[in-house]
From TrEMBL, chains A, B:
Gene3D superfamilies: Isopropylmalate Dehydrogenase. It comes from the Bacteria. Signal peptide: none annotated. It comes from Geodermatophilus poikilotrophus. Pathway: Amino-acid biosynthesis; L-leucine biosynthesis; L-leucine from 3-methyl-2-oxobutanoate: step 3/4. Catalyzes the oxidation of 3-carboxy-2-hydroxy-4-methylpentanoate (3-isopropylmalate) to 3-carboxy-4-methyl-2-oxopentanoate. The product decarboxylates to 4-methyl-2 oxopentanoate. PROSITE patterns: IDH_IMDH. This is 3-isopropylmalate dehydrogenase. NAD(+) binds at residues 272-284. Mg(2+) binds at residues 212, 236, 240.
Amino acid sequence: MRLAVIPGDGIGPEVVAEGLKVLRAVAPDVESTPYDLGASRWQRTGELLPDTVLDELRQHDAILLGAIGDPSVPPGILERGLLLRLRFELDHHVNLRPARLFDGVRSPLAAPGAIDMLCVREGTEGPYVGNGGVLRRDTPHEVATEVSLNTAFGVERVVRYAFERALARPRRHLTLIHKTNVLTHAGSLWSRTVEEVSAEFPEVTVAYQHVDAASMFFVTDPGRFDVIVTDNLFGDIVTDLAAAVTGGIGLAASGNLDASGTNPSMFEPVHGSAPDIAGKGVADPTATVLSAGLLLDHLGRADQSRKVNAAVAFDLSTRDPEAQVRTEEVGDRLAALAGG
Amino acid sequence: MRLAVIPGDGIGPEVVAEGLKVLRAVAPDVESTPYDLGASRWQRTGELLPDTVLDELRQHDAILLGAIGDPSVPPGILERGLLLRLRFELDHHVNLRPARLFDGVRSPLAAPGAIDMLCVREGTEGPYVGNGGVLRRDTPHEVATEVSLNTAFGVERVVRYAFERALARPRRHLTLIHKTNVLTHAGSLWSRTVEEVSAEFPEVTVAYQHVDAASMFFVTDPGRFDVIVTDNLFGDIVTDLAAAVTGGIGLAASGNLDASGTNPSMFEPVHGSAPDIAGKGVADPTATVLSAGLLLDHLGRADQSRKVNAAVAFDLSTRDPEAQVRTEEVGDRLAALAGG
Ligand SMILES: CC(C)[C@H](C(=O)O)[C@@H](O)C(=O)O
Ligand SMILES: CC(C)[C@H](C(=O)O)[C@@H](O)C(=O)O
């Protein structure tokens, strides 16, 4: 397996090291190549994602990314120029984010119940396309726009993917989250697409929630969700909510998939670079390890993926929730469990 | 006080009746005129908001609205044609939504702490403008767009309003919620505006959160928020989250303000028409009563407003959280408390 690794900024390198450790424990054939991308490269050279690097990345089976971002960089530079550029250039149209409340993990909810959902967030369209502009900047007549672009092609493929995932799960339930009563143009495309594709999946029950109502349900009744399909921006918000109610960002994994297999998919923890704790060895690498599990599953290594997930589930069920996380120790434990 | 009343659909008429009962108990000079708008009028006549009705509404000091919406009406018709049209035509640029965890109210959070925030949501711009369209509908080449429009004029007035509210509160803290790292055009306008206006309010401390991170904090640490300022769509989401963690939609009040005073402001519970429980007398009118409290405050009747809020606070602290709500009984109790 040829793996490109982008450790990135802040705690990125620390958690990626542990992710690789666990990956190697179950998949000894991993050949990894590190790529120096992120805030420090930009600070040093002004480069974000040189075309030659992008070409090299394309030659890999998958990409493992730690975290990108530093407070010293103005907002948008690294996000648009590196992280989102990777997602768009590599056609990562499925942003896959499972959220499960593991045994032994404390939820901030008083009565969380069983939570086990899979969020399928669209990754290459919507308000993330960067379309828009600023007119008469810094005058009282300034106008700033953001354009959300949604195509039948783009919506249909991610909706179909979500139905396929729902079909493969015990509950076979799919919830579309949008805001069709206000964003009527895009909302109509999303609703019609779900309705049409649902005809091919009669076994899957379908629900719809406006994003505001859905956000409440993440707090009051998250167990109602099985598979969720939603647009790029709503998905950004609800996946953080899903992470919050299942024990926080330290456990939230994600995959940016080109489901067609044309380009390598990219796996990254949902959390950011957390510069405040970087270098202290206290970042929880579990989200990165779970992302490595998604990576293995995506590459058709279901057995190896299961080992990683089982290791995490066991470790979480026996962790002392009061104890300070030590990044390396968690990685060592998980590698031993997964590889043993 | 000349009050226009739009009971609307579903539980709207029931909760509005109780809201009026409490309002009259503290403000005997209320002269109310009911307006028949909503799903049933549209079903009967095809009318949403006739211009003559809009003109009449303008002649009032304020508007009290119950709820608009019915599953028999396609999404967007009533929202765009009636509810949002009222907000836009009457220039309700401040959508004011307090969220406080009252004593005696159960939060779904295990450790909610003290929650007392005021969300100032922009009400006349952003992704709510209805700008956008659909090209090649129902073909594989369909494209649907939504345009978020943000103006210096519109952002500045709501940001200034939020700073004024923050200055008047003990904690004097304001949080901007946006997604400046992705929506860089609109995000830049919002950030720059907050920075500029903050120079006039040196006593107010300012924070910024991306909407995804903020959503997590609503679940993990809602007590950190004092005043929030945000755009129309993010405000829609985070105010439902704020409602969820402070005991739910049955308690969430809102005011749609033309802060300039040119047009009447409109007060409504955040909840919808809840057709499933309509007519059963079990809807909680508390959110409508608290909205009436906002109405009184907006009209300079601070004493009357305080009476309404104190009645609600007392009643909630003594309610049996297990007991079934009876709409009329709650209204009677609150009216007696507020008027007594
Ligand atoms: C860093 C940011 C651009 C990114 C996003 O908004 O997608 C992040 O929040 C995420 O969810 O992966
Ligand atoms: C009904 C809908 C148009 C409305 C909105 O999105 O503003 C509602 O959700 C609200 O928050 O008042």
